Amino acid sequence: MATRTINLPLDEALVERVRKAGPTPDVISDVDAVERALAIYLGDLAIEAAQAAEPLDEDEAEHLAVEELHAMRRERRDAA
Fold this sequence. Notes:
This protein is an all-alpha fold. Helix content is about 70%, strand content about 0%. It has a domain of about 50 residues. The protein contains three helices and no strands.
């Protein structure tokens, strides 16, 4: 997957909230914080779509979310 840079106007306070919600708020960059928030959002969407298609128990839903997150990270790593 090719990576291209885009510029987005984001609320600085919102990005800071995302950074502070992480395990190491002073270590991650704003870009990493936004990417992490988007990955979580996409994982939540994947869970909702899977549950709408077929009822899942909590463990199955969590497993699916983890698989989606790992797939996204693999794509990002392979694109680098």
